[in-house]
Model the fold of this input.
Amino acid sequence: MKAYLGIFVVLFLAPVLVALAEHRLGGAESNSWWSARRDSAELAPDPRHVREAVVQVYAARAWGWRGALGVHTWIAVKPTEGDSYTRYEVIGWAVRRGSPAVRALEGIPDAHWFGSPPQVLLDLRGADAERVLQEIGQVASAYPYPDSYRIWPGPNSNTFVAHVAREVGGMRVDLPPTAVGKDFLPGGRILAYAPSGTGLQLSLLGMFGVLVAAEEGVEVNLLGLTVGIDLSPLAIKLPGIGRFGFG
Done:
């Protein structure tokens, strides 16, 4: 029993405490959300110069205390010869105000998320992007939680992106361990493909589960927190901290 408790403390509790302390000391909550940066991080190709289709998936630390442990993820797409991007994402405050959970609006694809710089998780161009672009819109419009949002364990913004990735073949996106809610399987399913489509995962309401896939590696989910190891490239995945290793 003591051995199991020690494993829990080292792998789950300690990283969470470190992430919370780092978030607090970093003063991440000192800024007002209405004055936080929402401008482009200059990661997306300029549609005025890049005329081929583009599909990108982004992640950025969530606003406020949630940013200590989790990220917000979204999908940005631009069709061939398109002059702008459409962002697909789920936003909690919009649902609470009575708006649909899924937003599919023209916008800045790589905007800072209320001060947090985004990270590119997937970047498809040309024919690869064109193959999945239309299907992304179809899957997003049929999202099984059109009026629901729950920070933990889901369904939330990461549940949405993971669902789209599972349903759209060819995305192969590896969502970070800080994407809390990615393991919440719609419809109460217990078994599903991993978001990358390169393996399988077993999950009980997003609270307990195991994932094994070529893209993600091996992940263990406990109370919505993810611990794992990735072999390509080698890295350890820790709750709150994220991916720690190479590449």
Summary: Residues 86 and 106 are 4 Å apart (CA to CA). The chain has four helices and twelve strands. The mean pLDDT is 92.
